[in-house]
Amino acid sequence: MSFPENPLDNPVWSSLTDIHFDACIDYGSVKFYHPDFTPFGAFTDGADTSDAIEKHAKLLDRFFIVGEQPKVPASFNPPKRYVGLQMIIYNEINQPITEDIIELNETHYIDLMDLIDLVYPHFFKKNTNKLGRYYGIYKNNQLVAVTGERMQTNNFTEISAVATHPDHTGKGYAKQLITHTSKNIFKENKIPFLHVDNTNLGPINLYKKLGFTIRREMQYWLISR
After folding, report:
1. Which segments of the chain does DSSP mark as H helices, in order?
2. Of 16, 39, 102, 153, which is least packed with CB atoms within 10 Å of its CB?
3. What angle do the packed helices 201-210 and 173-187 form, to 10 degrees?
4. Domain segments of the chain: what residues?
5. Alpha-carbon Rg of the chain, whole angstroms?
């Protein structure tokens, strides 16, 4: 299975002009996810982003533009740069699944948000779980690990929110959830990818062991007044 990968060069833009069109706040050559979904935006064609940033700041105090360095209004702080790695996998993962993994739905929402608030609060908003499917592992009626889907195009789906409760790390739950999630993405004839902070060596090494390779660096620009 092979597709042109240029949509992944600007994944936020590609998602908002494709599968996640309905979650888009459109400022023309600058687009953002609605703040209830995720605090990410993107632009194209060397756009002057100042006006869109001014408008979007009325909805959200702090947000990110993913891609090249944006132009910000004079009244804003200089954008703070973070660097991530975009990783991709082309073949199913050869990893046994021994845990009972379930697809989460609205009845699991409070459990999901409680776990996310504990270990992965920064980019997850109240409707992030509606961007794709989420899977979890329960132990003694407690949700202890999750993985889900976020940005999507017709040919690519991002694996995101790989989160394990601190009391349940080291048990291989993340490996199994990533394996399960990627397998379901491949079943749709799509290719899984993910993003990770370039300083987060533990997860990077885990993803490499599972078969992901680094495709490119991604820049995240924090916008605030």
Report:
1. 11-16, 50-56, 109-119, 173-187, 201-210
2. 102
3. 50
4. 6-84, 87-216
5. 17
Left, alpha or beta for 46 (phi > 0: left; psi -120 to 50: alpha)?
Answer: left
Alpha-carbon distance values, 167 to 20, 53, 104, 196, 201 (Å): 34, 40, 21, 22, 20
Q: Which CATH number fits domain 87-216: 3.40.50.300, 3.20.130.10, 3.40.630.30, 2.10.260.10?
A: 3.40.630.30
Q: What percentage of the chain exceeds 70 in pLDDT?
A: 100
pTM, to two decimals? 0.95
Q: pLDDT, tens digit, for every residue of 57-101?
A: 999 999 999 999 999 999 999 999 999 999 999 999 999 999 999
Tokens 């996640």 belong to residue: 20
Q: Identify the CA nearest to 16 among candidates 54, 66, 57.
A: 66
| Pick from 205, 208, 222, 155: nearest CA to 185 | 155
